[in-house]
Amino acid sequence: MPLIRQEEIYPAAQYPWAQAVEMVASGAVARHDIVLVNTVAATGSVIPKALAAKADVAAAHAGIMMVAAGAAADGEKFLAVPWVVVTGASSDVPTGSLVYLSAAVAGAFTKTKPAAVDDAVVPVGIVLVQSATVGVVMLKPGGMTVDGFKKVGTAAVASGTGGVSVALGANFINGRAVAAWSEDPGGDQSLFVAIDGSGNMVIKPTASISGDKNCTYVAYSSLL
Asked: What gap in Å lies between CA 212 and CA 183, rounded to an integer?
C-alpha cells in the first residue's frame, strides 16, 4: 500500500474532487449548472438524481444544491461538487458582489437579483474578478444562505389604516415576513405583517398614518 505524506496532499483549486458526488441527471445538465438533488436513481439505489435548479419553480430551488462538474443527458451519470471556480464568466459587477440562482435559465446564475412574482432570491456565489467576458465567479450554492430564501423590497402604505398587499408569489405561501418603516411615519407607529395562503403579504399599520409612507420588507419562503 503506498504511503501518502502530508506534503504530497495539495489543496483543491478549481474543483474539490475529494468531495465530488456521483449523480444521475433528471433532464439534461450542463457543466457548471447549479443542480438540486430531488430523488434517487432507482429503487434501492443510493445514487441521487438531480435536476437543474431554477429560482421561479418551487420544486427546483429548495433543498440540497451542488454544481455539476460535467455535462450529462437525461439519465446519464455526472459528478457534482459543493463549489467550483468558474472562469470566463459574465460578471460585469464589482468584485465581491453576489450572484443569484437564475429564474430565467435552469441551472444558471445571474448578476441581477430576481424580482418577478414567484421568484425566490437565492444567493449561489460571489464575483472574484469583474469582467463582461473573462470574469471569475466562485459558486457555492449550498453555503450562501442560512435563513431561507428571501425577497426584499419596498412597498408604499397608503394614508390611514388600510395598509397594502404585496404579491410575493406561490413560493412564499404561508411563509414569514417582517417590515420596517423606511421613512418617518409620524408618531410611534408599528406594522402588522403576514403572508397568506395565496402568497400575498399584507402590510398594515396598527394606527392611522398621515400621508402615504414607505416601508421596507423581507419575506422568507416557507420552503425551508
From this structure: 10
